[in-house]
Specification:
Elements lengths: L1 H24 L4 E7 L7 E7 L3 E7 L4 E6 L8 E8 L2 E9 H4 L5 E7 L2 E5 L6 E6 L3
Organism: Trapa incisa
Keywords: Secreted, Self-incompatibility, Signal
Subcellular location: Secreted
Length: 135
């Protein structure tokens, strides 16, 4: 009788853990868009990665954008970082860091400009300079 109760408790515990993992998978999808707002005819190269994913290098012509989406992990440590190369300079930056960006944006929009990379906030159309170029 005791063994049956232990098995029933263990089974219930496993069901609860499985349900908790499903909750983590239902988190909102994060959408990253990086716009080329450089002067006409100028392009940039962007190469984004996370610990687990390498998205490859992409060339983005003027007035176009680069977009990717993902679901953050359940422990809130998701990090994507990018190297950006322009005629004006280059730099590496965290394009999505959960602790900084989860409260800031659901659709994280970035703008590549002559002096660096600007970020939008979801609830505002204001830009903030996040990253300046190095030469």
């Amino acid at each position: 009788m005791i063994h049956k109760n232990k098995r029933a408790i263990l089974l219930r515990l496993l069901v609860c853990v499985a349900a908790a993992l499903d909750i983590g998978e239902d988190q909102s999808t994060i959408h990253i868009t990086v716009w080329n707002d450089l002067l006409p005819g100028r392009k940039f190269i962007i190469h984004c990665k996370s610990k687990d994913d390498d998205l490859g290098a992409i060339t983005v012509p003027q007035s176009l954008s680069y977009t990717f989406s993902f679901k953050p992990n359940i422990i809130g440590t998701t990090l994507f970082f990018c190297g950006v190369y322009t005629d004006y300079g280059h730099g590496s930056f965290d394009i999505f860091r959960y602790s900084r960006d989860a409260p800031r944006c659901y659709k994280c929009r970035w703008s590549v400009r002559e002096n660096g990379v600007y970020g939008y906030k979801d609830d505002q159309n204001m830009l903030d300079l996040f990253f300046e170029w190095t030469r």
